[in-house]
Amino acid sequence: MAPITPAGSDVSSGPPPENDGHVTAAAERPRRPRLRGRLGTQHLAGWLFSTPFLLLFGTFMAFPIVASLLMSFTDFGLRNVTDPLAADFVGLDNYIELFGDETFRRALFNTTYFVVVGVPLTIGLGLVAAVLLNSGIDRFRTFFRVGFYTPVVTSIVAVAVVWRFVLEPRDGLIAGVAAEFGWTSPDFLSSPTLAMPSLIAMAVWRNLGFPMVLFLAGLQSIPTEVREASRIDGAGAVQEFRKVTVPLLRPTMLYVAVITTIGYLNVFEEPFVMTGGGPADSTLTTSLYMYREGFDFFHMGYASAMAYTLFVIVLAITLLQLRFLRDKTR
Amino acid sequence: MSRSARTVAAACTLPALTFAACGSDGGDELSAEDEQTLTVWAMGEEGKRLQDVADEFNQEYPSIQIDVTPVGWDQAHQKLVAAAAGGELPDMAQMGSTMMGEFIELGVLEPVDTSTFDQDDFFPAAWENNVVDGEVYGVPWYVDTRVLYYRTDLADEAGATHPPATWEELKELAIAYQENGSRFGISLPAGGEGAWQSLLPFLYSAGGTLVDDEGDPAFDSPEATKALEEYASYFSEGLTSTSVQPGQTVEQDFGSGDAPMFISGPWMVNNISEALPELEGKWAAVPLPADDAGSVSWVGGASLVTFTESRHKAAAQEFISFLTSPEKQADWYEISKSLPANMAAWEEEPLAGDPQLHVFEEQLATAGDVPAMPQWNEFAHEVDVAIERMANGGADAAQTAGELQAATEPLAE
C-alpha cells in the first residue's frame, strides 16, 4: 500500500494503515516534509489560478446570497440602507408573515398558473417547430430558424411595444382582425381573467425559440438508422414520432424542461413591462411582488424571505423533474 | 460649524481608506471662495439642460466648477438609494417632491439654512413638502400642479357656455360630451401606478386630506368618502374608461375627441401643442372644478437638496441661491418650461405676459402639498389599489375608504 495520499487531502491526517507497521512509518517520516512542501506548492498554484473566479464568485454571488439569507431573518428596512448593522433579528417572523400574506398567496397562484400553462406550451410548440424545421422544410430552413429564435434575443421593451399594439382593444392587431368579422375584441390587459393568458401567449411566443434550437440539435443527433429501422418495421409518421423521436430526445427534453420551468417560475419581465401586476393583482407574480416589496417599499428583510421561499420551491420542483424525467432507457 | 466639521471629519475617515471621496487637500469643509468642483445630479429634462445654467453660474463664481450628471427619472430613486447605501452621493441633487420623505428618513439630507432661504418667497405647498418636524430639507426649485384640460370646440357643440367650475358642472359637461358623440366624457385613470395623482384634486377640493394633523391617514373622514364616491361615479356611469393600460397617454383620445377632458400638469401644454398642432385654439386649461373647499389642486415638482456628507455645502448653497433667484427662475422657465417655485419669478417676463400660465399661478396659490412621508411609495400604492378596486372592480366608495384607512394606518408615522 502506497503511503502517499491523494492530492487534496491532508497528509498528516489519520494514522498510517495498521498492516504497514513500523516499516512504512519509519520510511515515511523523512519523506513527509518534502511531500507536504510539494503539495503545498501545488495547492498554492491551484488557489492562485482559482483566485479570479473565487474573488468574483465570493463578491458577487456568495456574499449576496449569504447576506440575503441573513437579511431574511431581520426587519431590514429603509433606515438600514445607510446603517445595515442596525437591523434587528426577528427570527422566522418574515416567513410566518409571508404565509399569512394574501397577496403572496395570490402571487404564488399566479406564478403556478403561468408555469403550469406556459411550460408545456413552450416546450410542446418548441418541439413541433423543431420537428417541422428538421424534416418538413428544406428550403428557407435558416430563415425560419432565425425567425423563431429572434424573439428570444429581442429586448423585452421592444417586445412589449409590439404586444401592446397586438392586444390594444381599439386599434390593435387582434381588434382590427376581429372588426373585419364584425366582432369586438376584449380588453385583454385590463381584464382580470384575460390578462394572464395574454402574458402567457406572449411568453410562449417569446421563448419557444430556445427549446426549438435545442430540440433541433437533439433531432439531428438521432441516427438515421434507427428511423429507417422503424420505418421498415412499418411505423407511420406518428408512431415514429412517439416511439423513436420522443424517447431519444429525452436528455434534451430533461434539460429544456428544467431550464424553462426555472425561467418561468422566476417570471418577472412580462408582467413588469405589460401590466405592472394588475389589474387587481391578477398578473402579480412572486418575483414581481418581491421586487415591489424590496425595491419600491424597501422591505428588504421581507423580500429576502420571499426570495428564499421561491428558491426552495424552484429547488424542489427541479429535483422532482430530474427524478421523473431522467433517462430511463439505460 | 463644529457639528458639521465633526460630521465631515467622520465622513472622511472611512472613505479615505478606500480612496473614495475627500480629495488630496484634507478633510475640512470648503468655503464658497475655495477652488472646487461641485457634483450635482439632476433628473429628466432638467438634467440635460442644467449644465448650461451651471456654466453661467461658473462665470459669476469662477472658483466653483459644476459637474452635472443627468439621471433618468425612472432610475433616479434606485440610484440615489444605492448611492446613499454606498456613501457615494454627490454634493447636491434635484429631488422629486414624492421622494423627499424617504430621503429625509434616510438621514442623508442637510437641513436648509432658513436665514438664507425665505419660506415666504416660495409657493406654500412646495415649501411645506420639504418640512419634517419643523426642519426644512430642500429648497423648492420648480413646481407643477394639476389643472383641467378640455376641448372647447366640442364643448361648444355640446352646448356648454363656460368652463366647468363645480363638480356638478364637470359631470354635466362629461355627460354632454358623450351625448354629443364622444366615446367618453373625461379621461380619469382607473388604477395602476400614479392613479392617486388624479384622485388627489377631488380629495383636496372636497376638503379632505391624506393625513391629519397628527400624521395619521384621514381616509375615514366624510370628505374622503365623498371624494372617492365622486371619482368612482365617473366609472360606474360609464363616463370614463375602466381600462387600466400602463403607459397609456391621454393625448391621443384628447385629439380624437374620444375623451375630451383630463386632469394633468403643466407639461401637457407643450405636449398638446407639439403632438396635436391641429388642435390649436380648440382646447383650454382651466382651474379644477370646485367643491366645498374650493378648487384645490396639489403641488408636485422638485427641490434642490444638499447631502450631509458633502464638503461643498457652502458652494452648494451659493448654487441653490443662484438657481432659485427670481431672475434665474424666469430664465429657467424659458429653457426648460418648468414653472418657477419662487413666486417673485412670476412677475418676470416671459411668465408675466403669458396668459396661458395664469391658470397655473392661480391653482398653485391654493394648492395643497403631498406630505413628506418615509413610506410614501407604499402609501401611494394603497391609494392606487383602492382606485382600481372602485373603478375596475365596482367596489363601494365608503367601504373602500374604510379599507384604505386600515391599509395605510401602519404606513404613516
Helix-strand makeup class of chain A: mainly alpha
Query: From the coordinates shown, what is the CATH architecture of the largest domain in chain B?
Result: 3-Layer(aba) Sandwich
The main sheet of chain B comes to: 6 strands, mixed
How helical, in percent, are the residues of chain B? 40-55%
Total number of helices of chain A: 14
**CATH fold group of the largest domain in chain B:** D-Maltodextrin-Binding Protein, domain 2
Low-confidence stretches of chain A: 1-28
Beta-strand proportion of chain B: 5-15%
Which term fits the overall shape of chain A?
globular
Family (chain B): Belongs to the bacterial solute-binding protein 1 family.
GO biological process, one term (chain B): maltodextrin transmembrane transport
GO molecular function (chain B): maltose binding
Protein name (chain B): Sugar ABC transporter substrate-binding protein
Furnish the topology, listing elements before pairings.
The complex is a heterodimer of chains A (330) and B (413).
Chain A: H1 21-71, H2 93-100, H3 102-136, H4 141-153, H5 156-167, H6 173-180, H7 195-207, H8 209-220, H9 224-232, H10 237-248, H11 250-265, H12 269-274, H13 286-296, H14 300-324
Chain B: H1 2-17, E1 36-43, H2 44-60, E2 64-71, H3 73-86, E3 92-96, H4 100-106, H5 124-128, E4 131-132, E5 135-136, E6 139-145, E7 147-151, H6 152-157, H7 167-179, H8 196-205, H9 222-236, H10 251-256, E8 261-264, H11 267-275, E9 283-286, E10 299-306, H12 313-324, H13 326-336, E11 339-340, H14 358-366, H15 376-391, H16 397-408
Parallel strand pairs in B: 1-2, 1-3
Antiparallel strand pairs in B: 3-10, 4-5, 6-10, 6-11, 7-8, 7-9
